[in-house]
């Protein structure tokens, strides 16, 4: 039995919420804290403090000297310049924070972005070829326990061929796709647990693949990409259904603001 | 020089990473997936913060835009009334407290003050008659109200309580909340403290405001508590520190003993605490103590590092490294009472010594201008605005710690560093006010001129008792440097004003030497006017051991002499009327021309009857006689504090070696203007009516001052 499945009842009982929501909450708090700490040590705190204080001063000037139009206008100018200065000061630490955070979020997206397929639930597999002519040479070899529920559909205008499949039971499957002289494979996950999912395998450089795929690149023959239409995951939290990214964004932002106040960090 | 907070220094590494980071950023922006939003909450912080600022600015804009037509119309209507007859668009008044006309003239002649010389040649330079007595709170009150002290009620820094002969601050009264709630050991005050201004009369910028003319007023003395008017104002002299005093410094020291400071400071022990040292800053009275006088404290830790000649000072969650002879920046300090109550202020640390003993000087704890516990500006947000724009700054009325130099806690250099740090803050405020006040009045008073002359006059004189041991070649040109600095400031102001602006440089009084102290209480005692209790030959402070039942006259403060008047003083014995008049005349006769037996020089050159020099509804609060000391003399330190000693005349050995609290005829102030002023004997009381007249306003009938005839030509 997977560890997440073992832990789930205890965690869910403790938080009285579902496991993905509990994990996103936990991760958001930890990452929010880490982020402000990293920001603290990679930024010029004094300069940021001064920039923010001066921005507030220019705002106060608008109020204090409101009857003097030239003063008000010049204060608006200073507010814009001050905002630019503040963003410039915040840019470098934000980039430093963004680098590891991006990779972390990409990894988390494999778990929280998609739901594994359910047993008995039909799903589409889409194979993209390099040319429309190559479509006729592409064939799909199904693993045991997985069946096709409809004939393949060729879409020459998109260089695509689409199958509708269904898996009889939970498990990690390998679809084999033959195209011309090449034979490539794609993983398919059928499960009810929170597991790592790779929706697509494609032939592309690392920086393009990293955002959508958790598998190695295809060799680059007739088959350009194989996509499995996993259903996107939504997370229930406080009565709303959230895309995990937005939930993470809001919660980590809140945690960051909380920790910045506690730790006295200028952001 | 300033100390610094320890901050993360990763800038160099950051610079090396820049190309890689920029590459990632570009990639994230260009990547054709939703993942470009993955910059995550970090970007959210920056975006939210700047968005919030811009959003608030936008709201202000909408508000300003919607209300602008009405406000503009109102302003036009008001201005039509006021500016219709105005001869100037803007008046800029630079108040240089204590600038002396004779010294200014001397330095101009020597070619050291080119900008004042320019004003004198192309505009005007006059001696400016001061007030009776020539003391800053008195003179500046007259400056702003256009009336004599009998109408504004300020006669000295101190006034006396006729019920107990004790002094109180003449300018403002601060009282705790009337009601309180007892919770266990705490007495919780219900409500805020009340602050009552004691100065009467209306500052002339209020008259301008009523006519729709905006004013920016910075650090003019006796403007605490700040009054509401159409403009902005930062209070000056008489703003208290957080303890409620006029400035109490603190010397934290490992030295076991030391004399108690005469005034203005306290000595606090530094105690060993593990590997470091521990001390505290005395704060205000515990607001929950129910008036029991328990003092709040802010503890701090000192970790000396003798090898690098510096120490690390930690207070609250802050820490700073200070070298010996170095000041810290302004540090926020919190004094915690119980139940979540606290008072917060700001102070600066100065590391005096690390070996063999450790000594740290802490400035008086100033009211934090960014979070003022008492209002120090109008509107309250003005002090906050300045604090956010320029950082924390000194708010104490007497911000330059003359007592610390007097008590030799600070040396000359440390004192000057403190003065000029404050001065630079004030300059920044002035230039911001000039930028913000393109029409109307901009007035700013600089105290540096007064404090530096008080403390360094000793170097100007060959034989001043306070500098007899300092060879001529070792005497710094502090006062000349001071005048040069002020001249430079004037030059910079002149470069920012146009031909429609009137520039006035005024001082409230001049300066003279203070070489000899006169204990008038001792003289009164020796001449049978003041009696001590049986067996006593000297009194303590504030008339301790004075026998009031046999005392006819006494003195306290700098120039005031009081009769012990029956029906007014609690134990008064002099009947009012003819007998009191006769006593006044007798005292005047005897004191006038009082000579110093050591040199034969005249110590008292004039004694003035208050009935002759004052007129107004508050004359009853005035001293009965104003004593005008001669050049080189002043009331002794003991006499000011109501103490009777054996000697009438004695040397003044303190660094406080120049003064102006003497015969007002000897210490006129200066008046420089960028326009011709035709009056030969202008007085400080004339400033208010002159400004009102130049802005085309009707003069209030109660004014004592007369407007000058001001020409149109401008020194540029």
Provide structural commentary.
- The complex is a heterodimer of chains A (267) and B (716).
- Chain A is α+β, with helices and mostly antiparallel strands.
- Chain A folds into 2 domains: 138 residues, no CATH class; 106 residues, no CATH class.
- Chain A has 6 helices and 10 strands.
- In chain A, helix 2 packs across helix 4.
- The mean pLDDT of chain A is 88.
- With 716 residues, chain B is α+β, with helices and mostly antiparallel strands.
- In chain B, helix 11 runs antiparallel to helix 12.
- The interface between A and B is large, with 68 and 59 residues.
**Overall pLDDT of chain A:** 88
Helix percentage range of chain A = 40-55%
Q: Note the overall shape of chain A.
A: elongated
Question: Mean pLDDT of chain B, as a whole number?
Answer: 89
User: What is the C-alpha radius of gyration of chain A, as a whole number of Å?
Assistant: 25 Å
Rounded to the nearest angstrom, the radius of gyration of chain B is: 28 Å
Protein chains sharing the most extensive interface: A-B, 68 and 59 residues
Proportion of β residues of chain B? 15-25%
Number of helices of chain B: 17
Termini separation of chain A: 44 Å
Strand count, sense and barrel status of the largest sheet of chain A are: 5 strands, antiparallel
Low-confidence parts of chain A, pLDDT < 50 over ≥5 residues?
none
């Amino acid at each position: 039995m997977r560890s997440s499945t073992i832990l789930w009842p205890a965690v869910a009982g403790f938080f009285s919420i579902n496991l993905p929501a509990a994990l996103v909450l936990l991760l958001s708090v930890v990452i929010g804290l880490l982020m402000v700490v990293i920001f603290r040590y990679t930024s010029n705190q004094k300069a940021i403090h001064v920039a923010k204080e001066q921005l507030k001063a220019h705002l106060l000037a608008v109020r204090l000297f409101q009857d003097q139009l030239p003063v008000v206008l010049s204060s608006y100018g200073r507010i814009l310049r001050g905002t630019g200065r503040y963003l410039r000061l915040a840019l470098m630490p934000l980039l430093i924070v963004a680098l590891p955070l991006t990779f972390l979020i990409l990894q988390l997206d494999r778990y929280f972005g998609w739901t594994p397929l359910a047993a008995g639930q039909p799903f589409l597999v889409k194979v993209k070829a390099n040319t429309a002519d190559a479509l006729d040479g592409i064939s799909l070899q199904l693993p045991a326990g997985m069946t096709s529920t409809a004939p393949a559909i060729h879409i020459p205008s998109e260089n695509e061929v689409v199958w509708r499949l269904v898996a009889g039971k939970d498990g990690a499957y390998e679809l084999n796709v033959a195209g011309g002289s090449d034979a490539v494979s794609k993983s398919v996950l059928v499960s009810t647990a929170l597991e790592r999912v790779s929706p697509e395998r494609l032939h592309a450089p690392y920086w393009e693949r990293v955002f959508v795929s958790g598998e190695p690149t295809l060799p680059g023959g007739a088959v350009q990409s194989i996509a499995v239409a996993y259903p996107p995951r939504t997370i229930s939290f406080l009565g709303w259904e959230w895309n995990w990214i937005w939930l993470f964004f809001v919660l980590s932002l809140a945690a960051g603001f909380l920790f910045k106040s506690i730790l006295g960090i200028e952001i | 020089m300033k100390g610094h907070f320890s901050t993360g220094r990763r800038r160099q590494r950051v610079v090396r990473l820049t190309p890689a980071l920029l590459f990632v950023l570009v990639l994230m922006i260009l990547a054709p997936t939703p993942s470009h939003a993955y910059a995550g909450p970090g970007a959210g912080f920056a975006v939210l913060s700047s968005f919030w600022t811009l959003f608030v600015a936008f709201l202000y804009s909408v508000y300003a835009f919607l209300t602008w037509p009405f406000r503009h119309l109102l302003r036009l209507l008001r201005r039509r009334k006021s500016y219709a007859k105005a001869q100037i668009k803007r008046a800029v008044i630079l108040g240089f407290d204590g600038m002396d006309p004779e010294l200014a003239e001397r330095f101009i002649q020597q070619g050291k003050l080119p900008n004042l010389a320019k004003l004198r040649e192309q505009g005007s330079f006059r001696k400016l008659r001061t007030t009776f007595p020539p003391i800053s709170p008195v003179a500046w009150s007259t400056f702003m109200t256009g009336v004599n002290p009998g109408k504004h009620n300020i006669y000295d820094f101190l006034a006396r309580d006729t019920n107990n002969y004790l002094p109180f601050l003449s300018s403002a009264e601060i009282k705790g909340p009337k009601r309180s709630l007892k919770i266990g050991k705490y007495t919780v005050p219900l409500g805020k403290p009340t602050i009552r201004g004691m100065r009467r009369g209306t500052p002339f910028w209020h008259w301008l405001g009523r006519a729709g003319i905006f004013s920016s007023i910075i650090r003019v003395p006796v403007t605490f508590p700040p009054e509401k008017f159409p403009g902005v104002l930062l209070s000056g002299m008489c703003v208290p520190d957080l303890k409620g005093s006029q400035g109490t410094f603190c010397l934290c020291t490992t030295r076991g003993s030391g004399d108690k400071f005469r005034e203005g400071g306290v000595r606090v022990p530094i105690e060993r605490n593990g590997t470091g040292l521990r001390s505290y800053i005395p704060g205000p009275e515990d607001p929950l103590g129910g008036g029991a006088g328990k003092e709040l404290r802010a503890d701090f830790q000192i970790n000396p590092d003798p090898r690098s000649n510096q120490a690390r000072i930690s207070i609250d969650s802050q820490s700073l490294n200070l070298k010996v002879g170095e000041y810290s920046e302004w540090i926020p300090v919190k004094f915690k009472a119980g139940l979540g109550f606290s008072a917060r202020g700001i102070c600066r640390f100065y590391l005096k010594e690390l070996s063999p003993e450790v000594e740290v000087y802490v400035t008086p704890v100033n009211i934090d201008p960014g979070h003022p516990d008492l209002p120090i500006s109008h509107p309250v947000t003005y002090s906050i605005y300045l604090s956010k724009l320029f950082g924390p700054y000194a708010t104490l009325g007497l911000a330059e710690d003359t007592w610390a130099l007097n008590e030799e806690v600070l040396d000359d250099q440390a004192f000057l560093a403190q003065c000029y740090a404050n001065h630079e803050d004030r300059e920044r405020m002035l230039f911001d006010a000039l930028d913000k006040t393109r029409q109307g009045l901009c007035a700013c008073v600089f105290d540096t001129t007064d404090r530096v002359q008080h403390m360094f006059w000793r170097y100007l004189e060959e034989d001043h008792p306070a500098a007899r041991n300092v060879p001529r070649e070792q005497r710094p040109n502090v006062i000349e440097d001071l005048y040069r600095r002020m001249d430079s400031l004037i030059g910079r102001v002149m470069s920012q004003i146009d031909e429609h602006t009137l520039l006035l440089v005024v001082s409230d009084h001049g300066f003279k030497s203070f070489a000899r102290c006169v204990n008038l209480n001792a003289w009164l005692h020796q001449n049978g006017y003041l009696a001590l209790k049986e067996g006593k030959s000297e009194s303590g402070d504030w008339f301790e051991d004075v026998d009031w039942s046999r005392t006819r006259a006494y003195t306290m403060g700098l120039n005031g002499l009081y009769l012990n008047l029956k029906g007014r003083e609690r134990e008064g014995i002099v009947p009012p009327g003819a007998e009191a008049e006769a006593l006044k005349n007798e005292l005047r006769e005897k004191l006038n021309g009082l000579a110093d037996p050591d040199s034969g020089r005249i110590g008292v050159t004039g004694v003035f009857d208050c009935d002759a020099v004052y007129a107004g509804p508050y004359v009853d609060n005035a001293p009965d006689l104003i004593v005008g000391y001669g050049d080189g003399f002043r009331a002794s330190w003991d006499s000011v504090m109501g103490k009777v000693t054996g000697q009438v005349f004695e040397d003044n050995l303190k660094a406080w070696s120049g003064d102006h609290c003497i015969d007002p005829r000897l210490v006129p102030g200066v008046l420089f203007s960028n326009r011709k002023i035709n009056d030969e004997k202008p007085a400080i009381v004339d400033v208010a009516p002159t400004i009102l007249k130049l802005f085309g306003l009707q003069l209030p009938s109660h004014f004592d001052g007369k407007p000058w005839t001001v020409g149109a030509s401008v020194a540029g």
